[in-house]
């Protein structure tokens, strides 16, 4: 499946969450990651995030799609981290 | 169609972009909006954003899906702005 993860966490945890998600997904923009994952990988990601964040203060949204083909992406302004370049 | 818009803009333009997107979409989280829009509304949103942002520095990603049914959303931690409440 294809996921887009956006997070809004307290400043002191931003770097840890960012670093953690980089292991599984492509960094797109400030607080946004996306990529193709399996069900098992997504479970692992969620378990890791559970440990890293404070669920009373932080907020993480995981948007899951069955396939990337359902997603049309448009960018206004700069592409901070074009995925094509990461995959090169 | 259903859209999720995430933005990473310079501090001086954050409030304007946020205020603008609130007119069309539901605020989800810091720098994230989502909602159902028509093609025409999306064009209007994009035109408005073109005027508000500096495309040499700012970055706005628009994820479009043909229908909300393709999107499964999971939240870890707090829901900063639960859409159900907004619609009530």
From TrEMBL, chains A, B:
InterPro entries: CRISPR_associated_Cas2 (IPR021127), Virulence_VapD/CRISPR_Cas2 (IPR019199). Keywords: Antiviral defense, Endonuclease, Hydrolase, Magnesium, Metal-binding, Nuclease. Its EC number is 3.1.-.-. Mg(2+) binds at residue 8. GO terms for biological process: defense response to virus; maintenance of CRISPR repeat elements. One of its GO terms (molecular function) is metal ion binding. Pfam families: CRISPR_Cas2. SUPFAM superfamilies: TTP0101/SSO1404-like. Coiled coil: none annotated. Homodimer, forms a heterotetramer with a Cas1 homodimer. Belongs to the CRISPR-associated endoribonuclease Cas2 protein family. This is CRISPR-associated endoribonuclease Cas2. The gene is cas2.
């Amino acid at each position: 499946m294809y996921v887009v993860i956006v997070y809004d966490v307290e400043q002191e945890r931003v770097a840890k969450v960012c670093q953690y998600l980089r292991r599984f997904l492509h960094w797109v923009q400030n607080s946004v990651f996306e990529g193709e994952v399996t069900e098992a990988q997504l479970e692992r990601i969620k378990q890791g995030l559970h440990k890293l964040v404070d669920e009373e203060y932080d907020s993480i949204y995981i948007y899951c799609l069955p396939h990337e083909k359902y997603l049309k992406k448009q960018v206004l302004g700069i592409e901070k981290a074009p995925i094509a370049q990461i995959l090169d």
